[in-house]
Amino acid sequence: MRKRARQVIITAMAGTTLVACAATAADASVIPQAPSSAPLPPRAPVVSPDTARPIPTDLAALGAAFNEALRTAYAKAKKAAALPSGVSTATSFWDAQTASGKPMRYRTIASPYWPLGTKVRITYKKKSAIGVVEDFGPAEWAVAQHDIPAIVDLSEKMMADLTGVASNTVHVRFQVLKWGKGGVYRRSGTGHDLAMGRR
């Protein structure tokens, strides 16, 4: 997560540096001329090719733009950091029906605590897949019987893709990418703190 935040801030700084260089180059391109009695036409503002907005040429405006870029990058990093991630036990299942009403498919995962529609990245060793919570489970007793709570149930197709075995129980790394807006099966129980990112 820190790496992602650092990349966002570096990108913002690079964009601000490009703006400053463009403004300096524009100033240097003006060739002094002999005084003339005719009034000089107003100088058109330099426009950034990627934003199509006038580039501020004074340091105060440039500093303000840089600070705004940093604030935006920090806000994005903070929001990403607020989404749960960690290591859990993952089991697998394949049912004819799902709680969401959607057909069972590769990307279907189940969770007792995450809302339906939640998008989650699942990583096993060096292989990853992105699933969507479309069903509820495992049951409380099934969550609690493992050394690390089993807060996520993968479709057998996803489990087979990640581990080579369709019906399997393994430790995985999970990362919630986006909260869903559907129903929640349970709001407390074994592994709830883990699922919510609270260690």
From TrEMBL:
Against InterPro entries, the record matches this protein to: RlpA-like_sf (IPR036908)
Record key words, sorted:
Signal
Signal peptide start-end = 1-22
Q: What is this protein called?
A: RlpA-like protein double-psi beta-barrel domain-containing protein
What organism is this sequence from? Answer: Microbispora rosea
